[in-house]
What we know:
This protein is of the alpha/beta class. The chain is built from nine helices and ten strands. The longest helix has 23 residues, at 193-215.
Amino acid sequence: MVDTTDEWIRTRTGIETRYIVEEGQNTSDLGTEAALNALKDANVSPKDVDVIIFATITGDVGFPSTAIFVQKNIEAFNASAFDIQAACTGFLYGMELADALICTGRAKTILLIGGETLSRITDFTDRNTCVLFGDGAGAAVLQPSDDDRGVLATFTKSDGRLYELLKMDGMGTKNPPTSRQYTEKMQYIQMEGRDVFKHAVTCMGDAAELILEKANLTYDDVDLLITHQANIRIIDATAKRIKIPADKVYINVHKYGNTSAASIPIAIDEARKTGRLQSDDVAVLVAFGGGFTWGSAAVRF
Ligand code: ACO
């Protein structure tokens, strides 16, 4: 489709495979499957969910939210359901909100989902972006804990001055779906890759350091660093910047590509299933994305 090579993609991005939805399959379908798996894993019934938060930039329709479709699919009719949009940092924005709702006693059981079908907003004639993105979803169930496990600290930040560097101009009300939108390819992700790279490394590094300070931890206390899986060079440069040993850094970008808001929950799930993340382990989660948005969390599992 574009002038590229497997070797270029592997060396510049670390990506080897990724998954793309089938026709007729939507973000809510991926989110529903992830949600049901998370509820089963947590032994929680859908009827006990108070809030469903869905982090995505590729919702099924303009409205209602994607969370609403998940609510319908899993029959969680005692819940309120809504989406949040913070690009690749969406899951951590959702975690901060969920933690606040639980800590203030406003909710007891929150289903937090990150899911994307980025293939639907990728221009497969643009080699700068089309080699990077994949589709997927992950989910977590958050509840109050009576021991020292759980969300230890969260941090989120954004800088709207830099939005031009990573954006999709179309599909909203500013540029409705006229022929101009399609001629100018506004329905696709546009990205200044080098600038995004530099900001991602700086912001994720700073966010990781800040969260340790907030949670009163040192790197020795951290069992696993899970960064947003954007690109192997971004992950490596972030780890190097904060001087955390490579064996404490979780990497699966080679399997899934960049799945935006889904990348952190997919990594958490995989790390738990493969034993990289065990009960009582402390993980630092850190992400960066369009907006720009960035954030971090320290979690004892
Ligand atoms: N195949 C072959 N050549 C390519 C491709 C490709 N797929 N894409 C770009 N090139 C070319 C460029 O055209 C350029 O050619 P030129 O020198 O003749 O102009 C050359 O490769 C080098 O381009 P750079 O942009 O300097 O390549 P770089 O080494 O920076 O890698 C990349 C590009 C991978 C996009 C990098 O900048 C990057 O990782 N940026 C971060 C982007 C990202 O991860 N975004 C995701 C969203 S944000 C987030 O999730 C954090």
